[in-house]
Structures are given as structure tokens and as C-alpha cells.
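SEQUENCE-TO-STRUCTURE ENTRY
===========================
Question of interest: how does this chain fold, as expressed in C-alpha cells?
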Amino acid sequence: MLETTRTYVARITNHQQVRGDLDQCGFSASKLWNVGRTYIQDQWDETDEIPDEAELKSKLKDHERYSDLHSQSSQRVLEELAEAFSGWYNSDDGNNPPGYRKRDDRHPRSTITWKKRAIKHDEKHCQLRLSKGFNLKKSRSDFILAEYETRPDVEIENIQQVRAVWNGDEWELHLVCKKEIPVEDAPGDKTAGIDLGISNYLAIDYEDGESELYPGNVLKEDKHYFTREEYQTKGEDGPSKRALKARKKLSRRKDHFLHTLSKHIVQRCIKEGVEKISVGDLSDIREDGNGDSRNWGASGNKKLHGWEFDRFARLLEYKAEEHGILVDRVDEANTSKTCSCCGQIRDSNRVERGLYVCESCETTMNADVNGAVNIRRKITQSPPTGDMSNGWLAQPGVFLFNRENGSFKTREQGDCKP
């Protein structure tokens, strides 16, 4: 059995009865965010440093706004604020730092998070008792009693966390549950290697099998379109309703793409009899050896910031685990420079982004596929061989994302150019 977590979205069936309490908690979370935002600004102006979440919690735990919510809920607000500032500070996209949250229709109500100590679950009647903060208990009840409804095939148990999320029209609950799921035996004993890229979202090579490319043009098109929609409708005092709607839609489409891609890759690995997948570890791509931010140029920095390689790897890990497939992150050093046929390492072999021509053995191949082969060999320790088929190295299969049915379909192999 594999112990993991799953998040289920639930509709609140007594929304009219609990909306006032949830609104109050949502606005309280916004107030606490603003208090923390002011503290960070003051410390930044005074010391040129941004306080971390531990300092935020320590300094603000006695603030009046901290007691508006349950202590764990208040802690989560400050954790999210610290995460937002850390993400902004370590990025090079030129955006402004996280702003203040406003109590009006121009800003969505803040998400409220309850952890196990603040939750009581009545499974029989599908009810959740969610604790309020000390200040909100004075005028009304001590808790919010929310009745919920999920899909018929979902069993809600072992709740670890509850999030109340304003979806633009009403509140909904996101229930994070601990689950034990049966783990299948690995479908085979082969390996696969994945090279994560930007033009091609990824290339994958299967041991004793073909190689495949997955272009990321759909994500680029969505990013371009919805970013333009957002900036063209920017309001005077922050994002307009239309801009927020565009931002949410982009997020949903990106989520769907990443989930569908990771699920598709796992199914392909099952078919190919794969036991272990190696993925290039890009966790330090934004930093150099000294820990300083790398400058990839204006265009490169923009692409890199929107490249969610770590999230894809995490999705792939938990989906693969259910089928007994291990995902191993490996060092990508020299995988794009090394010839997968003869082992020569030379920068000049990569003629352009999609083309690799080895000066030693004269093999011509797709550069991303060449990287995927080298990444796969990181976990097999098998040396390069000279009898590899040049066909699938040069013209791998291509899977395109179909927006109409939300799935991947193959493109004719002859249409792919290295």
C-alpha cells in the first residue's frame, strides 16, 4: 500500500447559512495578510532584508488580527505571504512584490485553511465543524458547521486539511485527505529517460524502444493570449474582474495540461514495460555555483520563470508510484553536450536548438532526444553503443495536445524535423 494525499473539491449544500461566517473569515485572512505585508515592508525599508515565515509568526502571534482566525489558520496565511515574497524575490520577471488585499469586489476573498486540530468531521451526515478564531467567537458561535457534497465515487475520510476557496461566485471546500492505495507491481524491468525543455516541453526515450517529443506550443499560446487579456483589462486599483478571470482560466488550463501529460507519460511507460524513469534535475537551474541568480537574458528569464519543471516532476512521481514505477531525478550535467552514440562531449555538436550533429561519429539526431537518452543512461550505467538506430534518434514520434478532447494524440512521424 502507498500512503499519499488526495484533494477533493466539495460543494457546500448549506451555503446560504454559512456564507456570512465564511465571508467574515475570508476578510479576516485578508486583514492578517495586510498586517504581515506592512511588517515585511517596514523590515525591508529598515534592514534591506525580507523576514521569513518563522519571524512573521513570532512577531505577529500577539497581534489582534492574528486572533480573528484559528491559530493554525492564521499561521497558514503568514506562510503563504512568506512563500509569495520568497517567490517574487528569487524571480527575475520584473513583477511588483505581493500587494495588499482589499475588502471589495475587485479582490477575491482570501482562502481560509483549517488543519486537523481545527476540524471535526461527521462522515455520516457529511458535515464539517470548522473552528473560528477567538475574536469571531465573541459575537456568534464558536464554529462553522458546513454541509458538503462530493462526487458519488469519492469517499471522504482521514481529512488532514480543509480549505475554503472563493471561486468567484460562491465558497467551495477543498478537502485534503490521507489515502492508502494499492501499489501495482512494476510493468517490466526497462528504463526511460526524460529531458525537460522549453520549445519541446519534454522528450522521452524508452529502453529498447522508440523516442517521443511533446511540444509545449499549447502552453505558450495560452500564456500569450491570457497574459494579453490580463494586461489589456488592468484596472486603476489593481486587476479588473476580467483580468482575474483570465488569470484563473490560464491556471486551470495549465493544471489540466500538466495532469494530462504526466498521466499520459505513465500510461506510455506501462505499455513499454518501464520500471524506472529518470528525469533531469533542474532544481538549481535558476542559480549559479555561488547561489546567485543566473541571467538568461530578458527572453530566457521570462520563459524560465513560467517553466514548471518541478511541478511536472512531482505529478509524475505520485502518478507513477501507483503503478510500481520509480521516478529518479538525476544530474543533467553534460547530457545535452554528449553524443549518445559514441560518448564524445563537445559544445559545438549542438548545431541549433533542435539539432545535434556529432563531429566524431557523424550521427545526426534530435538534440532533445539525445539528451533524453543520456539521462536514461544515468540510471542504467550502460555505455553508448555504435549500433543505435539513427531513425528514431533523428525523427522521433511526436504527441500533440488536442484542446477539443483534452488529450494527447500522435502526429505522423515523417512530419517531425530534427
Q: What stands out?
A: Residues 190-415 form a domain with the Nucleotidyltransferase; domain 5 fold (CATH 3.30.420.140). The mean pLDDT is 81. The chain has two domains: 2-181, 190-415.
